[in-house]
């Protein structure tokens, strides 16, 4: 098999890929010893802190058999080819922002942060191409520096992730006319775990089944080298936040979700209300909202109060009231789009998020409201943290996207870990997940969930297509991480095998 197809070469023929041989030469004729020697330069020593992987929330951790930190396409290909020959498994990871064990493996871990940079920005095509390890912060900066400036159409709550990781889990923003961010991808350049580690460029016009699977590929459809994504003219957003009664929002959920281009809601159970944020594009001057005093109160004081609630659980509702006092007020912010849409996640946290058909979202929220109220009335009941986040996305046609085929309402909950300390969360978040599942929900792939292949097939009609694709491009199972083997292939692997506190 050839080392690279023409489209992939064109997409990647930019520094540091000016050497076409990085892409076009097959590795089949390279000896295994030469591969090992070549990879010494990007092999992470076992004593290095990078030899241990922990996700951002520090809830899952692994010590892989080997860890690599490549910086070039050739090194990525060499890693995949050597793993195929050695019968090893390879799993790529970005910055590790997934709150689940998606980034963990006992096999070979590939830290992709070094494979970063801008490959191309086209005002004519309204696209930009980035290497997969590029963080969204760097993406925003590169697009803002273009002349004239550009921006992504929609983003999620944070910009710390790499663009390759973002695509691999169908991460979403919010807006009933905006699909998950993966739907804006035009093409992907992948290293396939086949003999010679070929490089291919896939799109709707080139190997559509592989492209569609890779739009939410969980790291199993190929090692992503580059992402071409749709962009638009840079824009500001004017976001207006207002306070509402919980039932008022739930009873008018559809109307509220369509009341602006980007709508989000945060429910503070102990405060008894919701904050609804409506954001629309604008050309008025920026009016950012930032305050050192507000940061001290919102971050440091809140974290201390949450720590106190670890020891005195019935103090938790008072922390929730404090947070509601900070957040529950009218405000207006005008700033660059990504600055408005990004959200401070505050502290390490346990989190669960499910995607509901928007038609079922109100009933699901009512069931969650009733459950939280029952627990609050019980002296020994669960004491929940804040906020419950509510967002929306448009339907898409990505096989494993939680928004596949339906307008979606995303509902997420958090349980904070003040100062990184453990906090009981499983009872509440398990019940939350059960409520969402009972209303036809699909879990966010980057968050903890229990789905087995049978469950996945029941809620994703194109799941057999996805499995067929990974069998075609990876018959030896090189890219099958423990997460993929558990949730996609059905191996009996413990859900908590990588938990820092089993």
How does CATH name the architecture of the largest domain?
A: 2-Layer Sandwich
CATH class of the largest domain: Alpha Beta
Number of strands: 19
pLDDT average, as an integer? 94
List segments where confidence is low: pLDDT < 50 over at least 5 consecutive residues: 13-18
What percent strand?
15-25%
Summed up, the helix count is: 17
| First-to-last CA distance | 45 Å
How many domains? The number is 2
Which sheet architecture does the biggest sheet show? 8 strands, antiparallel
Radius of gyration: 23 Å
Which structural class best describes the helix and strand composition?
alpha+beta
Shape: globular
Structure description:
By secondary structure, this protein is an alpha+beta fold. The protein folds into two domains: 6-233 and 462-487, 2-Layer Sandwich (Uridine Diphospho-n-acetylenolpyruvylglucosamine Reductase, domain 3); 236-443, Vanillyl-alcohol Oxidase, Chain A, domain 3 (3-Layer(aba) Sandwich), CATH 3.40.462. It has 17 helices and 19 strands. The chain has helices at 6-12, 21-24, 32-39, 73-86, 136-145, 163-168, 208-214, 246-251, 253-257, 292-311, 316-327, 337-341, 358-377, 426-438, 453-459, 463-473, 482-487; strands at 53-54, 61-62, 66-68, 90-93, 108-111, 118-122, 127-131, 150-152, 185-191, 199-203, 223-233, 236-245, 262-268, 273-282, 331-336, 349-357, 388-393, 408-416, 442-443. The strands form four sheets. Strands 15-12-14-13-17-18-16-19 form an eight-stranded antiparallel β-sheet. Strand 9 (185-191) and strand 10 (199-203) form a beta hairpin. The chain is globular, with a radius of gyration of 23 Å. Pathway: Cofactor biosynthesis; D-erythroascorbate biosynthesis; dehydro-D-arabinono-1,4-lactone from D-arabinose: step 2/2. Its EC number is 1.1.3.37. InterPro entries: ALO_C, FAD-bd_PCMH, FAD-bd_PCMH-like_sf, FAD-bd_PCMH_sub1, FAD-bd_PCMH_sub2, FAD_lactone_oxidase-like, Oxid_FAD_bind_N, Vanillyl_alc_oxidase_C-sub2. Residues 60-234 form the FAD-binding PCMH-type domain. Keywords: Oxidoreductase.
């Amino acid at each position: 098999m050839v080392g690279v197809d023409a489209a992939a070469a064109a997409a990647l023929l930019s520094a540091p890929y000016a050497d076409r041989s990085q892409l076009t030469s097959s590795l089949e004729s390279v000896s295994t010893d030469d591969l090992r020697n070549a990879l010494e330069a990007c092999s992470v020593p076992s004593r290095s802190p990078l030899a241990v992987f922990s996700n951002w929330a520090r809830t899952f951790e692994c010590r892989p058999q080997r860890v690599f930190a490549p910086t070039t396409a050739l090194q990525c290909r060499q890693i995949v080819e050597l793993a195929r020959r050695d019968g090893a498994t390879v799993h790529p990871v970005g910055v590790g922002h997934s709150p689940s064990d998606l980034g963990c493996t006992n096999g070979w871990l590939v830290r992709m942060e070094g494979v970063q940079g801008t490959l191309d920005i086209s005002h004519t095509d309204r696209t930009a191409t980035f290497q997969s390890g590029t963080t969204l912060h760097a993406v925003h900066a590169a697009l803002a520096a273009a002349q004239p400036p550009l921006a992504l159409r929609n983003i999620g709550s944070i910009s710390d992730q790499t663009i390759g990781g973002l695509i691999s889990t169908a991460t979403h923003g919010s807006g009933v006319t905006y699909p998950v961010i993966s739907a804006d991808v035009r093409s992907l350049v992948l290293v396939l775990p086949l003999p010679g580690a070929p490089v291919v460029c896939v799109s709707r016009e080139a190997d559509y089944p592989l492209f569609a699977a890779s739009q939410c590929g969980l790291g199993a459809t190929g090692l992503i080298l580059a992402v071409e994504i749709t962009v638009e003219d840079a824009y500001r957003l004017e976001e207006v936040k207002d306070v509402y009664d919980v039932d008022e929002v739930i009873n008018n959920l559809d109307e509220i979700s369509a009341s602006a281009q980007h709508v989000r809601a945060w429910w503070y159970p102990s405060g008894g209300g919701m904050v609804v944020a409506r954001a629309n594009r604008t050309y008025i001057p920026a009016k950012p909202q930032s305050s050192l005093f507000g940061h001290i109160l919102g971050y440091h004081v809140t974290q201390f109060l949450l720590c106190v609630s670890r020891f005195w659980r019935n103090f938790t509702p008072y922390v929730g009231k404090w947070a509601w006092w900070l957040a529950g007020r009218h405000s207006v912010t005008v700033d660059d789009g990504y600055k408005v849409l990004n959200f401070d996640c505050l502290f390490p946290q346990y989190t669960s998020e499910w995607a509901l058909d928007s038609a079922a979202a109100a009933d699901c929220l009512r069931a969650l409201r009733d459950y939280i109220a029952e627990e609050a009335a019980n002296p020994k009941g669960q004491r929940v943290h804040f906020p419950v986040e509510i967002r929306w996305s448009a339907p898409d046609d990505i096989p494993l996207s939680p928004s596949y085929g339906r307008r979606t309402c995303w509902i997420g909950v958090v349980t904070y870990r003040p100062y990184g300390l453990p906090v009981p969360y499983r009872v509440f978040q398990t019940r939350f997940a059960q409520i969402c599942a009972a209303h036809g929900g699909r879990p966010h792939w980057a968050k903890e969930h229990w789905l087995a292949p049978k469950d996945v097939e029941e809620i994703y009609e194109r799941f057999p297509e996805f499995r067929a694709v990974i069998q075609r491009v990876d018959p030896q199972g090189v890219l099958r991480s423990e997460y993929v083997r558990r949730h996609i292939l059905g191996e009996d692997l413990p859900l908590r095998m990588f938990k820092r506190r089993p």
